[in-house]
Amino acid sequence: MSIYHDQPIYLDNSATTRPSPEVVAVMRHLFEENYGNPSSLHAMGFQAEREVKNARQAVARALSVLPAEIIFTSGGTEAINQALFGAARIGRKRGRRIITSPAEHPAVLESCRRLADEGYEIVYLPVDPYGVISLRDLEAAIDDSTILINLMMVNNELGTIGPISQVGRIKQKAVSQRADDLLFHSDAVQAFGKIPLEPKAWSIDLLSLSGHKIHGPKGSGALFIKRGVALPPLIYGGGQEAGRRSGTENSPAIAGLGIASDDLQEKIYKRLRHFSRLRQYLMENIKNEIADVRINSPEQVWSESDIESRPGLPVASPAILNVSFAGCRGEVLLRSLEQSKIYVSTGSACSSRQTGSHVLKAIGLPREFRQATLRFSFSEDNCLAEMERVVEALKASVAAQRKLTKR
Ligand code: PLP
Question: Long-range CB contacts (< 8 A, 24+ apart) of 287-294?
Fold first, then answer.
């Protein structure tokens, strides 16, 4: 076996990514030297405060929003919780209806379940075979009691890009026809750094993101809160983050997120082209070399001409490819690929240990395909030569499993 064949191939970048050396370096600096409390009034405090300020500017730049519109959180999950519970509290005197979809991340679905217990009415719009809601259903679901629309930007299992700019237009139209506000939150955890984002142009009020999906640290995240939206905190205490998220700032994680966000938008097209090449190669070769496969993600990926994603034509983030291999079990394939040091997932990291994928159920994928699924997710660390090795290993793993089950 050559040395090359001993190198691990990590294709689970939607679960988490390898922190970049620049991120590790800045975090190490903050742990070992610049460890002051950003609220302290001495020089070490000011230095730490400066790191937090730089990070806020970097995240704001990546989203084309104001630094004052960004708060740091302990990750995507906390940002989503604050957006949902905060929006529900803002709106509770006006109405109780929250519109979302069954294909959202558990951070959304579990928050909604809790809000339903508290008396909110959660409307789950049905989704098509790619996990996309119908805009007509959305328009029909908005009534005077609607206080929040919550729809994700990129589905973490399928990679499908939601029609976010059109949702924003529908929300704006509804707002113009009523006296009070209606908020729009989007979970952009799988979109940040993967497709260009324009929250302001898309009438988004609240947007959640996470550091560890973009080569930043785990336990780092941010919430965009549009100026003028008085979102209440989830965590109370010393009044950090302008009173919107108390607790001593996790300055190493925040600085790491800042470094990971730096230049994210500037380099996005280069990264997109790289992911697209890898995904196209892998998808075409899986389809050509392995019988009875089903591509669950939209085959078409987002391209530069799709800034306004085309209604009726589902497109995927080039960072994710979801495939079912008929007659196989996803977990068995995963274990078999692991023997060749190839790391993939059967779905999202959150659903993989539970009862199977709620997303694949929501899109109506038959059970035998749901159990036979692998998700491949890419980063700039991956290369085409790796994809060749993945196709070869997959061919062997699928054939071995089908032979056992005499398919
Ligand atoms: N939303 C989506 C779409 C995700 O994929 C994830 C992570 O897998 C999250 C939210 C949660 O983010 P975090 O792991 O930072 O809490």
Answer: 289/391, 289/395, 290/325, 290/394, 290/395, 290/398, 292/325, 292/326, 292/327, 293/323, 293/324, 293/325, 293/326, 294/323, 294/324, 294/326, 294/369
